[in-house]
Amino acid sequence: MKLKNILLFLAVILLTNTGCEKYLEEKSDKSLVIPASLMDLQALLDNENYIQSSFVAAGEVSADDYYLTDASYNALTYEEDKRMYTWQKSNIFTPITTTANDWSNCFRAVYVANSVIDLLPSITGLDTEEGHNIKGQALLWRAFRHLDAAQVWCKPYRPETAASDPGLPLRYDPDFNQPSSRSSVMDTYNSILRDLRVSVPLLPVIPLSPIRPSRPAAYALLSRTSILMGDYEKALAYADSCLQLNNSLIDYNTLTASASYPVKDLNDEVLLKATTSSRVLTSANVRIAADFYNSYDPGDLRRTIFFSANTDGSYRFKGNYTGGTGRFTGISTNEIYLIRAECLARSGRTQEAMTTLNFLLEKRWNNKKVYVPVLAANSQDALMLILKERRKELLFRGIRWMDIRRLAGEGQNAVLTRSVNGEIYTLSDFVMPIPEDVIQLAGIQQN
Amino acid sequence: MKHHYLFLVIVLIASLSVRSQSLIRGRVLSFDEKLPLPGAVIRVTGNSKALSTDANGMFALQVSNKQVKIEISFVGYKKQVVETVSAIKDTLYIFLHPDVSELQEVVISDGYGKTSGERFTGSFVQIDNEMFNRQVSTDVLSRLEAIAGGVSVDRGTNGTSGRIMIRGLSTIQGPKEVLVILDNFPYDGDINNINPNDVESISVLKDAAASSIWGARAANGVIVINTKKGTFNQPLAISVTGNITTGKKPSLNYIPQMSSADFIEVEKVLFNNGYYEDKINAVNHPVLSPVVELLIRRSSANTADQQAIDNQIELFKNTDIRNEFDQHIYQPSFRQQYAINLTAGSQAAHWTASSGIDRNTDNLDANLSRANLRFQSVLRPFKVLDLTAGLLYTESRTKNGKPGYGEINSAGGAFLPYLRLADDRQAPLSIPKDWRKPFLDTIGGGRLLDWNYYPLEDYKHSGISGLTKDVLINLGASFEPIKGLKADLKYVHEMQNYSARTLYDSQSYFARNLVNTYTAINGDGSVTYNIPLGGIFDQSDTKMSSDNIRGQLNYSAIWHDHRIEALGGAEVRRAHSVSSGHRLYGYNDDVLTYRDVDYNSQYPSIISGAMSYIPDNDGLSDRRTNFVSYFANAAYTYKKRYTISSSARKDASNLFGLNTNDQWNPFWSAGISWLLSEEKFYTNKAIPYLKIRATYGFSGNINPAMVAASTIYYYPSVSKYTGTPYARFDNYYNPDLKWETSKMLNAGIDFSSRAGKIKGSIEYYRKRGVNLFGNEQIDYTTGITSVVKNAAAMSGQGMDIAVSSLNIDRGIKWRSEINISYYKDKVTDYYLGSRQGSNFVSYSNSSTTITGLKGKPVYSIFGYRWARLDHATGNPLGYVDGSTSSDYAAILGSGTSVEDLKYFGSAIPTTFGSFTNSLSYGNLSLDVSLLFKLGYYFRRESINYTNLFTNWKGHSDFSKRWQRPGDESFTNVPAFVYPLNSNRELFYAASEALIEKGDHVRLQYVNLMWTVPVKKGNLPFRSAQIYFNASNLGVLWRANGEGIDPDYNYGYSLVPPASFTLGLRMNIK
């Protein structure tokens, strides 16, 4: 102890009023702070454990790009995981007292975003570029999480019923004493759109790192939201806005196909990084059927970059945009190219649609072989081709589940089945039950 | 010695002036502590005239005869008759032996002052030196369970290490540690630093009147440790003690391990069902057991090879890893303890100096060595001023030993029952660790480091050592200008440095594994080590310093029938703790070199190819607790019969985020006592001493981790992606957060029969904890799963009965001491988010759920109702809506509310205590102590197939499982099925079928002591005792039929094996 400290200590003994107060206001733990600066808020948003990871996995688990063998299914430890895989209508999420689940992970991130938005007005520097950036980031994360959750716990958006279909409990206030109540699907999507639109001008075009939201990422999410709402015109406009700011595509010829994970983390296509992981979707469990693999042309580099063969004739996916086992659930330029192509096709602009698609596919083609552009006879043909390529490009990102939902109305893949231990299970609708303990604690309406 | 000559001169002059009469000068001291005994009665035999010794135990007696017999008597000591000649010129020293059968005056120290037990209104246990030393231990607190009434060690809800509780629980979620005071101030260092040989006595303060002077930290009770001190005018006394203890090897048969043959059969079934298929194909090659590896090979082998493989598997069935542990790992423990204590005093000063050394080697060859050095002195330059100064220095070193049962494991903590650790020639064998062996054998083509794990070799290369250095300096001045009015200033500075070093040398598995994982083999066959070759060195340092300063005024006065004792003062206290940790790669301990690594780039794992950052192990922390407190205490006694007392205290701390105005928290207490036996109307001759007392008061409990404001916690490192700091929420805004308050009412009587043959006390207490921190489970749509609030309240009540009796008092003496405590708590208020049954049960024996149900104990044991096993399937059956069901999701979910559960009772003993008998004959004495815990329940483990499949953790109950219809009539162990419903396992684990009564009686210790007969002058010491002590002697009776020791029912816990001590204590001339 330095002499100065001793003197200070002795001064306190005198119990002068101010000394006493100062002494009692010394911080009890230096690493704890009351968030009071922009740095504090940014630090909360840069915490990958809470913000960028643990997106909802239930959608991908329930989708059909993969299957589990009976052996893998039987070896699943949690009963809830088995029930989710077989599309049961109850007890498919572990209770919070057992492990964190999709619902808790999602709303924990929403809480951080809400807290940041709530604290901002009291912090100096609100009107600086950095202050705007932070506000934009928080708004975008809130919207992104809401959009993510809506794909699992809300019915697909249908303009006719959206106002009456139950939506998410929308929380904007970090005060945990406020009760939760379910909004409508329309309110949910409007909230997502509003947050994203407000965030656009606040966000920088080029972020410090793709783990932070940016303006192109906001446009990309607006585009994804619009397509999920069936608003193809807006989806196209937002896709264009995004691609104007960032249109990078990786030439897959530059990747090492033999690598365990050929696509790198934070690569040029990543607009915003987000990930999920699941006990069901481990690289060892997940099997891809040979006919899906065979839908890739031998000249298509994705055949070797995305897949490696298992011993049983099935394939395993190694094309995560995370450079590892983490499943990418963020947003990347290739998705936006595909949205653009789809919207163009849907509006009858076949030629432009196919140009966009071919621009992307050429980057996936082995440059030692001649790329023959894909042709479409009409817009419907183009749409079918684009949707097929969309499925082949965007695997294990939760997007397949979104597509199953939104395209079901168009008569595609209406009946999904799974065979487990000789029993056939059928997917009946596209809404999953809210975790039962949430229903008990919050008293909100179950799906 | 100067004053001795002075005395001699005075004696000479006196003897010259009085010719016909001689003057005998003497001094009366206690035999044990060599303390002067003021007020001892001196009389010449046959003469009615008597006189008493002065404050220093001195007397001067005029005698006329040449040959005289002097009788010396003193309360609490045996009367002594001394024959002497009147012509003696030297001072006569008379040592009185304590008479244990007589009522001794007890002096209680609460850390602020000392009070006589007679005038004390509160509840306390006083443990004297003799009682304290009946047990042998390296630390101080572990001895209390067997000797202090109302003190228990909770091993049921708090794991094997246990937690000391004084009168049960006072809080639900708050800190449960008792406050330990060393002499005058809370001890901030590691309590294990204190050498038990420095302890003079211990006061356990049990009720509010006793402890509320400690305010905001006293709710869990206070233990005051008083160290040995010198006195004025005392010749040099030297005492030496030494003991050696050896403990047996623990019995590994206590572990209910599944048999290797059963385990292998399960592996075969799982293999045939394809359970391992995904692991076999997984790109990250997760570890598989040797039997599964053999089964994989077998599936593609020819018939001859298959036979060979089957033979190998059969060999595994005969191996039990417990035997391997017993043979190669566990060893008898050995402890040594030595201490020396010197004390002396003159008229103007006294001092004590002591030193102690402890050296322990435990059953796993882990070492502890501790050295204590203590010096304490008082200087009295003027009659009115005492200056004190002291120093206590402790240095202790720890070194890791071998890995114990459950610590030699594979990935995820799993381990196999059939592994061998060494071959027939005792050479260490490798065991599967993180990845599949066939894969490790081929990967890298010989360019990687050996990737095998050899448990018997590895611990030698993973040295974990700790060094604690603790310095405590105390200074004090006490000024007494007028008799009765004393001003005290005390200051204590303590500094404890703890440094931990973990050195994984280049041979260790830890270092080899990390280096290999991050090694890249380039296209041209060259090797790049992204983690450099060499050792890995983790170092952490924690520096704690604390300062306490206290100013205090004491007043005491006696006039006529009145007696007043009062004190008041203020204190400031602060503790500051800073810690840091870091890791060095490529470390070479011989030349102290290390290599830099790149923490900011991702590297591919050579196993799976997945990209990851090199793990760092860096951290910093800086914590402070500051307190400002005012306190006062007063007691008034009238006619030595009626006493009223009260105390008050106000504390403020830097509890984060609270406004200064809200920080002051008052605590107070009041008490009365009435010495009934002193009344004239009291004529009961059988009970000549009877006192009634009652107190009421408040004390508090704070949790430094509880913060009222929303706070965020910064991680020590920066985000790998942005290079900027990142943080998470740590606390949520809660402006109403208050300190927990505990109110306690205590009423008791103290009694003693004639000559103290039977004496004791009976006390009744009620306590109410309010504003208790409670974990409130909330709707996690809010983003928060639970918040801590002052949401709970509890009440507890109980009785402490302590009786000691002298049953036989002839040549053989037989004394008994019994402590019985009865305790019951219940939750009176708690926020329950959900009444679903699953919130009230626990699924393993390693945790006990805080049930928070109004009217029930804080820790209640509930179980799912059990409808036996299904006749056809052997699946367990429960109840849903009143009928038997195997819908486990419903039973574990909304189908069971707390009302549907079976309630058993408290998880904490409701009746507990000790019963000690002491026999003595001549110089021999024998103490036997029993400990009992009654009226509670615990959950035992059984086979959990989920754990068996995923963590390889089996249970011997597997052999009792249901195998065919009809088995359900004699077994509750569910059938082995595949595939498995994990909820079935949870249901069984939490069902009533696995709940047992915890009641048991334990033989705590046996102590045999021989006092060496000392005849004057024939031996170089004044007194000596040789003793033999046996402890951990095991359970004598238990209510459960499973052979479980309820105190050691936690994970892989072993029952501490019996240990035996031989020791010597002596006082040197």
Which tags fit this structure?
heterodimer; A: 447 residues; two-stranded antiparallel ribbon; 11 strands; globular; B: 1069 residues; mainly beta
Characterization of this structure:
The complex is a heterodimer of chains A (447) and B (1069). Chain A has 447 residues and is mainly α. Chain A is 45% helix and 8% strand. In chain A, strands 2-3 form a two-stranded antiparallel sheet. In chain A, strands 4-9 form a two-stranded antiparallel ribbon. In chain A, helix 8 runs antiparallel to helix 9. The relative contact order of chain A is 0.13. Chain B is mainly beta and 1069 residues long. Helices cover 11% and strands 45% of the residues of chain B. Chain B has 15 helices and 52 strands. In chain B, strand 8 and strand 9 form a beta hairpin. In chain B, helix 4 crosses helix 6. The two termini of chain B are 16 Å apart. In chain B, the strands form 12 sheets. Chain B has a 22-stranded antiparallel β-barrel. Chain B has a 5-stranded mixed β-sheet with strand order 10-15-16-13-14. In chain B, strands 3-2-5-6 form a 4-stranded antiparallel β-sheet, with no helix packed on it. Chains A and B meet through helix 1, helix 2, strand 1, helix 3 and helix 5 of A and helix 5, strand 26, strand 27, strand 31 and strand 35 of B.
Radius of gyration of chain A: 24 Å
As an assembly, this protein is heterodimer
List the helices and strands of chain A in order: HHEHHHHHHEEHHHEEHHEEEEHHHHEEH
Q: Quickly count the helices of chain A.
A: 18
What share of residues of chain B is helical?
10-25%
